[in-house]
Amino acid sequence: MSAVAIASAIAPRESWRRVAAIGTVAAIAPDLDAVPKLLGHWTDSVLMAHRGLTHSVWFAMAAAACFCVTSWRPGGMSRTRTFVYLAAALLSHGLLDTFSDFGDGIGVALLSPVTQERFKAPWQPITGEISEVLFCLIPLTALTVGVLRKRRIQLPIPDRDQPVSLSLHDTGRPPAQVE
Predict the structure, then answer these.
(1) From CA 62, how far away is CA 83, in angstroms rounded?
(2) Residue 21: CA atoms inside 13 Å, Cβ hemisphere, count?
(3) What is the pTM assigned to this prediction?
(4) Do 56 and 109 touch, CB atoms closer than 8 A?
(5) What sign for the dihedral angle of Cα 9, 14, 17, 20?
(6) Separation in Å, CA 147 to CA 131, 136, 137, 143
(7) Is residue 30 exposed (0-12), middle (13-18) or buried (19+ Cβ within 10 Å)?
(8) Out of 25-29, 40-44, 124-128, which region has the weakest mean confidence (pLDDT)?
(9) Residue 6: closest CA among 69, 64, 62
(10) Across-strand partners of 100?
(11) Quick one: pLDDT at residue 14?
């Protein structure tokens, strides 16, 4: 959700949804380091352990740079703007993980591979799915809606003035208009 919030602020008005979708995929990428554990191939390597190298500042910058060099510019953004956006989306994952005590509780290697020190936020309110919704999803959604309204970007919400019809089964007739 952080990638969507960032995109709502910096992406071009006409393509912010496409940019947000690309950023969302990028923001999920750091958790690829959990796949070996899911497959039963746990590693004690500090670099490759969960919340290790793929959650670091260096990984965020390298992955964003690789995307910018090898790919198109999403939504017509410049390469520099795309780099900044993707690096921020990737880095937001690691930073938000410092507020979580999920998993092993050893923290996040934000500066890997320079140092293997792991960081935790002084306050770790994210302890499960409900707290993740309360402390991440709801605030970031509110921020996104606020930014989109400030930028006068149309929200993908149906018009309340249009009649809505609901049908539990298909009768073969067009639905009646509700007024």
Answers:
(1) 10
(2) 5
(3) 0.77
(4) yes
(5) negative
(6) 24, 16, 15, 6
(7) buried
(8) 40-44
(9) 64
(10) 126
(11) 87
Three state DSSP letters for the chain: CHHHHHHHHHCCHHHHHHHHHHHHHHHHHHHHHHHHHHCCCCCCCCCCCCCCHHHCHHHHHHHHHHHHHHCCCHHHCCHHHHHHHHHHHHHHHHHHHCCECCCCCCCECCCCCCCCCCECCCCCCECCHHHHHHHHHHHHHHHHHHHHHHCCCCCCCCCCCCCCCCCCCCCCCCCCCCC
Residue that the structure tokens 């490759």 belong to:
48
How many CA atoms lie less than 13 Å away from 81 in the CB half-sphere?
15
In sequence order, what are the residues at sequence separation of 6 or more whose Cβ sits closer than 8 angstroms to the Cβ of residue 39? none
The tokens 């089964």 sit on which residue?
A: 169
Report the amino acid identity of residue 168. L
Of 48 and 21, which is predicted with more confidence? Answer: 21
CA 43, CA 46: separation in Å to the nearest integer? 8
Distance CA 36, CA 18 (A): 30
Instruction: Give, in degrees to the nearest 5, the angle at Cα 28 between 24 and 33.
Output: 165
